[in-house]
Amino acid sequence: MYEGPSPVRNGRRAFLLVSNIRGGETGNIQAFKQTEVSRVCQGRVHATIADRRELAKTALTPGELIDTSIHLDESTEPVTGQDMFALTEICHDGFIELDVRDIARMLQARPGDETESLFACADRIRKRFVGDSVHIRGIIEFSNYCVRNCLYCGLRRDNHKLSRYRMTPDEILTASQNGIQSGYRTIVLQSGEDPYYSAQDIALIVEGIKSFRDVAVTLSIGERARSEYAAMRSAGADRFLLKHETADAKLYQQLHPGASLKTRVECLQNLKSLGFQVGSGFIVGLPGQDISTIAEDIALLKLLDCDMAGIGPFIPHPDTPLASYPAGDVTMTLKALAVARQALPYANFPVTTALSTLRQDGRQLALSCGGNVIMPNITPAKYRALYEIYPDSASLKDPEDGGIREIAGMLKAIGREVSTTKGDTLPKERRSIPTVDSNNHERMR
Ligand code: 5AD
Ligand code: SF4
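# 5'-deoxyadenosine complex -> structure
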């Protein structure tokens, strides 16, 4: 267990979520002061309610927010265990900056109560900030050519065992049209880093998809010059996924020959400044990674103000230099997702295919730890097996339409629903702290 300073530091302004008091019961502020804070903090934290107007109230309603200042006595011991997560939630107004030490501390939740508490907290924050809707995005993997040589990936340039394919623009448009007819409102075009397609080619494909219907188009095609991203954005592309993979610059260089984290981050910043909704993300369980690396990964997502982030476990591929390394840990992946949800409460977090590959119930698990997006594979069947980033991908099992109807059934069974919107992230200027009653963002858009 990380024994550094507590996540709540002196004088931090916080909003108290009344729903947190004894699982949503109506509470009394005096009772809260005496029992809840002392229970949560075991008498080691001195808390004051700063807003006198709120203090005048006695009865509190679940969903109410009270402006508070929480003061930690520097000499007090850090809060530990389950209490920490309750405290993190109490202090979580969505804008408080969890720093890298707080994040590392949360990632070290012990098995059992602590981890359960972390997951439950992420689930409450997900519900509160982005609601129960799950966005479904159809992915088309249109080329498995790649000029890069990432040590972990089956599409790497030096993997000569792989048969390569490229879909023509017409094939991509047909697959997109089929996806739209099946009900997808976001089409994701993904490929290896393949300069064969010029920015103009991509732009024309985006325009073609946009001419079918008002859908969102997400690109996931790797690093390009800013001017190329600009051309794609002008053509109507809405979003761009470019995972940073690891926030450790040295490890990044080791795993990505000839590439640098600096360039990666510059690309992400270029995309953001061009008005794309930007997705990043990272791999959990890369050889050479530790908890502090994962904490840096989450801190970087926050620094970049990502709209989306994909967090998936490493899966060894036999035809790569990392073939003999063990797969990433599923629980650590879920913990990273749960902490990331708390650090970026408004972001979209997809269930990663890598997680579903390691665990059959990966989708349900991730949806209960902060996830709110599913990205089924709608690539034409004949190409699917060739997009082999890692072996036995769960996406090989998706039906040709991605299984959108089955997903709707599964969501209903777990009390969630398919989103009826394109699923854009809420623009920054429209973000406020939602109360329990206003957490239905479908209505707000
Ligand atoms: N295991 C898990 N994820 C991988 N990716 C690539 N190779 C692997 C692997 N062996 C992920 C990377 C990349 C995306 C296309 O797939 O995060 O961004
Ligand atoms: Fe290419 Fe992406 Fe695989 Fe790296 S991770 S080899 S860039 S497809």
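# post-check
The chain is about 40% helix and 15% strand.
Residues 15-69 form one domain.
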